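F.,

This is the one I mentioned.
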């Protein structure tokens, strides 16, 4: 069984959704027969490093809200994450473009390390306050998950894996995916957003049962982050 997941490293609901999916898979009786494929998605493709600006200020400016409201929303998100065992340190978060980080995930996937790269990058951004566009940071993460230094360096100093990232984004656009996380189970059952463990497990079970019977894409919506900067519950 295959699970295709579109998500961005800087999407708070994507990390929560990843944890909930892992919990669902721990219950799913066919867990050992599941392959997860991570697809690139950028909530803000034009984002650039902005030294001195906090993520609170960034969201306030992008959404036209007060700084106080931005801080409040990030605090709510922090509490949501904590319920899943995740630590979000938005006060340390560094505004950065995620394109090269997505390239690293694609490189890692060639060695069966896509999920390891995804986890390491999410932790680096949300918990550790690292700059995920910094090549030194990406190099260190790549080494830590088991990639070779020369291969990481070759990727970072070229356009290697850039086409894969763009292809993922184009596919998302063609399918009308404008918010993440977005899960597709065996090309049959789609779940939009970081829904509950129960709903994700239900999606796994339905897709497994229907995998040889029909090819109708069913959908279910949950908590998502959209390209307009909105994270909706």
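My design for it:
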């Amino acid at each position: 069984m295959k699970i295709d997941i579109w998500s961005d490293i800087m999407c708070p609901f994507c990390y929560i959704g990843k944890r909930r999916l892992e919990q669902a898979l721990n219950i799913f009786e066919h867990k050992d027969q599941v392959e997860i494929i991570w697809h690139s998605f950028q909530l803000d493709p034009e984002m650039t490093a902005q030294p001195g600006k906090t993520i609170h200020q960034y969201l306030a400016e992008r959404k036209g809200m007060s700084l106080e409201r931005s801080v409040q929303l990030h605090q709510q998100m922090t509490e949501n994450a904590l319920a899943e065992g995740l630590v979000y340190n938005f006060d340390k978060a560094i505004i950065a473009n995620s394109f090269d980080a997505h390239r690293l995930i694609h490189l890692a996937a060639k060695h069966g390390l896509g999920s390891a790269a995804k986890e390491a990058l999410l932790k680096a951004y949300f918990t550790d306050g690292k700059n995920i566009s910094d090549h030194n940071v990406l190099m260190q993460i790549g080494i830590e998950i088991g990639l070779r230094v020369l291969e990481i360096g070759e990727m970072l100093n070229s356009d290697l894996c850039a086409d894969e990232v763009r292809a993922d984004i184009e596919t998302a656009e063609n399918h009308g995916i404008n918010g993440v996380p977005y899960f597709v189970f065996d090309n049959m059952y789609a779940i939009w957003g970081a829904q509950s463990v129960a709903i994700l497990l239900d999606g796994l079970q339905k897709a497994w049962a229907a995998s040889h019977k029909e090819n109708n894409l069913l959908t279910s919506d949950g908590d998502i982050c959209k390209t307009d900067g909105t994270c909706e519950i």
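The chain has one domain: 2-232.

Talk soon.
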